[in-house]
Amino acid sequence: MKWSYGVTTVEARRDSTLPRTLDSLARAGFDTPRLFVDRGLLAFGNWALAAWELYIREPRADFYAIFQDDILACRGLRGYLERSSPKAGYLNLYLIEDQPVPTLGWFHALRHGKGAQGLVFSNNALCRLLSQSEFVLHPRAVRSSTSNIDGTVFRAMHNAGLKEWAHNPSLLQHINEGSTIVSTRGNHNHTAPTFPGEEVDINELCSNSHTV
User: Fold this and answer.
1) Which CATH architecture has domain 3-205?
2) Is residue 119 pLDDT above 50, yes or no?
3) Helices (DSSP H) in 3-72: which residue ranges?
């Protein structure tokens, strides 16, 4: 499988969470990410341009992934995604649900807008996202025009007829050292209670989980 993937970051994280994130991603199978450093674009602008650049550089990739600079990942994640990913929709690798979810594996997210720590798209899904007016016009929004990546992606994909898939256990963990996003829309510093640990091989843990 051909991947195009990157990490969005800010200068303030260069010597704090970013090195730990890159080390964890490397052990998860994502060892050569492209870095997208926010120099005044703010969160949504940096993420949107990252999505476009990943696509333009590799327009025929099978998968596209964008990670944030304050996460940890399960070992073996890349291979697990190639083996078990749902065939339609897009993947949110970060789960902080506080209501019942399936024992193991992928399921349609019960809630949206809970974080864009790691989102994965098929080629078709990313093309659909980049062509949706909800996504294109978000910088004009009256509120949260520079943030709200997760909610905007969810609504744009919903309008395109594509669903968000989440996974139990969470495949990523948030390094809780404070958000660089200034927002009035709640707490950005959640952690994932089901994350099994970055030393855990997700392929072994979920060897019998359901593949959609």
Assistant:
1) Alpha-Beta Complex (3.90)
2) yes
3) 17-28, 42-57
